[in-house]
Records
---
Amino acid sequence: MFNEEAAAERCVVEVCRELGRLPYRSRLIVVDDGSGDGTAAILHRIAPAQPLLQVVTHLVNRGYGAALRTGVAAAHEGRFDYVLFMDSDLTNSPADVPGFVAEMERGADVIKATRYSGGGGVNGVPFSRRIISAVGNRIARVLLGVPIHDCTNGFRAVKVPLLKQMALREPRFPIIMEELYWCRFLARTYAEVPVVLTTRQADQRPTAFVYRPSVFWSYLKYPLFAFLRRPPTASIGRRP
């Protein structure tokens, strides 16, 4: 979470409700990435009533990639089998969590939400963004050579032992593609969960994602490296 005071409490309550219905040990790890609004206060206020909630705090904003790495470290320390990544703005529904759990029970290494197959879709997303996303994902799928239709979707689950082998270093959103690039060389099995992506509500801060050439390259370089069969450490160097 970063400056998500408008939806923070609702997100925690809805996710914890779904987790509480599962027959497995689970935890909601919220990484507060140096929020400057009331997000931190909200999380600490509601924590006593949410036993499944664990709050991890960055004192300063370190970016999406750093927040994910912090969350993975906490999941590893908690001895969990999977990390299910989910943005805190509720553009993906917590009601889709059981679909991921079903694929976890089958033992898939990588489980991706998909807007582009099996009944998935989008609701309220501008047409221009839908076209850019659909075309970009088709290109990424061909280059990566993995059976995933929605490569850029951040709603996904990965086995913790696989994540711990990845020297991820991207600071922002392209870490999603960097992660899948590592999966191309480490993972054996994949699964998809159809979901419907919605837009952020009017009372939430605008999305931080922007479309420009440098952003496209930051995403597509990883599928290109995979297409050239260059292992991650050979392509981008080791994480400092």
---
Amino acid sequence: MHPDLKNVIELQQVDAKIAGLAMQIEALPAQIQTLQAQLDNFIHAHEERKKRLAANQKERKDLEGDVKVIQERIAKHKDQLYQVKTNEQYRAMLKEIEGEEANIRKIEDQILEEMIEAEDLQKLVQEAAARLEGEKARVASEIKRLESERQADLEERGRLQVRRQELQTALSEPVRDLYERIRGVRRGVALAEARDGLCTACHVRLRPQAYNEVQTNESLLTCDSCGRILYYVEAVPAQTEDSGGQKAKAGV
């Protein structure tokens, strides 16, 4: 194989790995932010439910106080029934008592609704309280894992960048310039495998003579269509099992 072709193939592989690592490294802050936002939302919802539960308890206490005040008025009205002097005054007093009792029923309905809401809230608050420490631990563990992966990615990228420099230095200047130029216009992919007479990058059929020459891997040729450097990977012969269970090359 042409020495520049061998090095430029490895250079392409190294660049692809560096690009992949860069994406992972750049994605980490957003992943951590998402995890932290999930925890913050969980805590915020928990605190809001606790506030609502406290407000619910105050509202019920206020409503129960209203009922007590009305009951006292009813008791007072009932005492006054014995002091009225006319039937008209008696009926008016009874009507007022009925109105007050109707108000009590309405307030009691409100209290019942508040009690039902309080039961639901109390259940949610208890469940969230039981999960809270676990959620904090889960997020902390996940963030620690991501940061550890990031450190490993940074170290791996550093090693690959050293190897990239070695490969670049080993290339002849014309090939190095050609690689960088193609890489710049082809979204980081400067090489393409030739297979079955086609360029696998742009899927355009190669000239027979050019394809034959590419298969030797003894020179650097570029695709007439996309301009990428072409290389050929020899197919691995299919293997079959002989009668003794040993693998053997087909046709042998």
